[in-house]
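Progress note, sequence design subtask.
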């Protein structure tokens, strides 16, 4: 049994007859009244995100998890198939368990959280950034670089990302997976 002082990003807890992964938290100590922890939690079964406030010292039921490296193989409907990089066993997960499924390309290695009680996969942690090739974008207008102007670009996985005007089709870009935003152009 853990308390609110143990809350951190990525912690999996049992809450309201489901398992939730904490994605954001903030310890708040107001000038008047007791301290509390404001959290944003994502259900690992449905993908639903909820906001919740725990009073300081509140007991939370922590779920013990192990992390394993898995390679993304392919998508089949709403299921995503992964292979363990150590023992080559395969699992399939629902799209709701993934944080950024549109940025996942075949062969990408991700970290999968597995519940140690019943060996069920809970969620997938993407790498901090992914490198993808731009498959379609409109050409930039010459001379329109004085402002931080952006344009939509489609990458090889089908995701759409706003990129600066100098990015062209065929360029390889690095995308921050947490926000789904352009980070930089990658030289080949």
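Output:
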């Amino acid at each position: 049994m853990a308390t609110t002082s143990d809350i951190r990003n990525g912690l999996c807890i049992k809450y309201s007859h489901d398992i939730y992964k904490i994605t954001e938290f903030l310890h708040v100590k107001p000038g008047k009244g007791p301290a509390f922890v404001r959290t944003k939690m994502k259900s690992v079964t449905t993908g639903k995100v909820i906001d919740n406030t725990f009073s300081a010292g509140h007991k939370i039921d922590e779920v013990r998890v192990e992390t394993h490296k898995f390679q993304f193989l392919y998508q089949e409907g709403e299921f995503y198939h992964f292979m363990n990089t150590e023992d080559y066993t395969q699992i399939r997960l629902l799209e709701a368990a993934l944080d950024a499924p549109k940025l996942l390309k075949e062969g990408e290695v991700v970290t999968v959280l597995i519940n140690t009680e019943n060996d069920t996969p809970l969620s997938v942690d993407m790498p901090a950034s992914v490198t993808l090739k731009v498959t379609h974008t409109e050409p930039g207008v010459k001379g329109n670089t004085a402002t931080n102007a952006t344009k939509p670009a489609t990458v090889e996985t089908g995701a759409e990302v706003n990129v600066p005007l100098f990015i062209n089709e065929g360029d390889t870009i690095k995308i921050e997976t947490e926000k789904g935003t352009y980070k930089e152009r990658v030289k080949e």
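The domain at 2-62 is CATH 2.30.30.30 (SH3 type barrels.). Work on this subtask will continue into the next period as scheduled.
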